[in-house]
Amino acid sequence: MSTPDQPAPESGGFKPPATDPWKGFRGVCSGILILEAIVVLLAIPAVAKLGDGISGGAVAYILVLGGLMILGCGVQGRSWAIGFDLALQVAMIAGWLVHPVIGALGLLFAAVWVYMLYLRRDIQERIEQGLLPGQRD
What whole-number distance in Å separates Cα of residue 81 and Cα of residue 122? Predict the structure, then answer.
């Protein structure tokens, strides 16, 4: 039974966390996307110096990819955000066709996003078990 000052526990018997852990997770995802966009956009001069240079199509691909990453920062609160983030990683790895450096960066950041998936699952399990700070009396 709950009183006006004490909310009723959720179905698992634990109170919701005092602070929203998903807010912090979304912030980290946004930060990773911004860093990734910076790295991708800074790859343009590096790719241009390597080998035979860079074509206009390759520059357009990199600019669009970097722009989508920046726009992706604003949609991290949506239910489909993690799918969008992973799709960006697939597009980044597919950038191997543009230049191997872009594909290699895609593999590096894909590893970061695999870790983010692990953290997402861990946060969810901790919420369900009532292990987050503020969930217990």
Answer: 18
Tens-place pLDDT, residues 68-87: 999 999 999 999 999 999 99
How many C-beta atoms lie closer than 10 Å to residue 94's C-beta? 14
Cβ atoms of residues 76 and 26 within 8 Å: yes
Q: Kindly report the pTM of this predicted structure.
A: 0.80
Cα–Cα distance measured from residue 137 to residue 132, given in angstroms and rounded to the nearest whole number: 11
Task: Return the structure tokens found at 63.
Answer: 């600019």
Give a three-class secondary structure readout of 68-110. HHHHHHHHCCCCCHHHHHHHHHHHHHHHHHCCHHHHHHHHHHH
Residue 3: pLDDT band (50, 70, 90) is very low
Name residues whose C-beta falls within 8 Å of residue 25's C-beta, 6 or more positions apart in sequence. 119, 120, 123
Q: What is the CA radius of gyration of the chain?
A: 20
